[in-house]
Design goal:
The protein is mainly α. The chain has helices at 4-7, 10-33, 47-55, 57-61, 102-134, and strands at 43-45, 85-87. The chain has one domain (4-134). It has five helices and two strands, in the order ααβααβα.
């Protein structure tokens, strides 16, 4: 059974956001693990942009009011993790070509963890609301 009608897609969007945040966490940890590897290029992903592409929010914003109008671009059926992983081409002062900046990576890790926790809490509250409705408002 789809819960999309109950929460207007909130549960599915939160699920996708958690998957993307988890993937970003893996990339950041990989960057940190390779901080001393010569020639290693740091990777990252733009979670918000990937989430917009996957969830089709752009498609929902543009309404086709006339058949002669151009249709909104579709996501092409891409999966949740078929997003673009960016290679960091940042200039570094290191002589070995490694682009990992420990401070930036730790900051990204902390911010990503906060967003993951916030999304998980949102999803938990929505499911708690659904449980309450099923039980008739009884706790």
């Amino acid at each position: 059974m789809s819960t999309e009608g109950i929460f207007s897609g909130v549960v599915e969007t939160a699920r996708k956001a958690l998957a993307l945040r988890s993937r970003r966490h893996s990339l950041i940890v990989s960057n940190l693990a390779n901080a001393d590897t010569p020639g290693y290029k740091a990777f990252d992903i733009e979670v918000e942009k990937a989430l917009q592409e996957v969830s089709g929010t752009k498609k929902d914003i543009l309404l086709r009011t006339d058949p002669r109008h151009l249709a909104a671009a579709e996501s092409g059926g891409r999966g949740i993790l078929a997003h673009q992983v960016l290679i960091d081409e940042q200039v570094t002062l290191r002589g070995d070509g490694n682009t990992v900046d420990m401070e930036r990576e730790m900051s990204n890790l902390a911010a990503n963890s906060l967003m993951y926790k916030a999304t998980a809490q949102l999803l938990g509250k929505k499911l708690q609301l659904l449980k309450s409705v099923i039980q008739g408002g009884k706790r």
